[in-house]
Design brief:
By secondary structure, the protein is α+β, with helices and mostly antiparallel strands. The protein folds into two domains: 54 residues; 49 residues, no CATH class. 46% of the residues lie in helices and 18% in strands. A two-stranded antiparallel sheet has the order 1-2. It has a two-stranded antiparallel sheet with strand order 3-4. The model has no long low-confidence stretch (mean pLDDT 82).
């Protein structure tokens, strides 16, 4: 049998079982579409995670202050970070910038309207560390 005869035989078999041929084609198309969709979702999720990690800064280290230790008699001690700790860290050779940070949830009131907001007190270097860009307003700086 030569190639032409085999090709003609295959075409005749496909024509003879048109329902089976169409269902097989549909199955292949759905299978390929499913694989493409799953790969796209995986790549999209991966990119989302990478973008979130990069938004933190690949060279940013966050140090959170102390802990509360409960004593047996009901007393407690609080270990915390100070501004002097930040100044000491900023003197290290591989450190480019240091910023203290304090966060609190507060109720903000303007013209009788109140809303709950997270208020964050930081130093001027925070803008550089977090690569922030303001849409409006300015960063408040301390006047000495």
């Amino acid at each position: 049998m030569d190639i032409e005869e085999l090709f003609n035989l295959a075409i005749e078999a496909l024509k003879g079982n048109i329902a089976r041929t169409l269902l097989t084609m549909l199955g292949v198309i759905i299978g390929i579409a499913s694989v493409i969709a799953i790969i796209s979702l995986g790549q999209g999720s991966t990119q989302s995670v990478v973008d979130q990690v990069n938004s933190f800064g690949v060279n940013v280290l966050t140090v959170s202050p102390g802990r509360v230790q409960r004593m047996g008699g009901g007393g407690s001690t609080v270990d915390t970070l100070t501004m002097e700790d930040g100044e000491a860290v900023s003197k290290l050779s591989n450190v480019e910038a240091v910023s203290g940070e304090m966060s609190r949830s507060k109720t903000l009131t303007v013209d009788g309207e109140s809303t709950s907001a997270s208020v964050k007190g930081v130093e001027a270097s925070y803008v550089e560390i977090k690569s922030l860009d303001f849409d409006a307003g300015i960063f408040l700086v301390r006047v000495r």
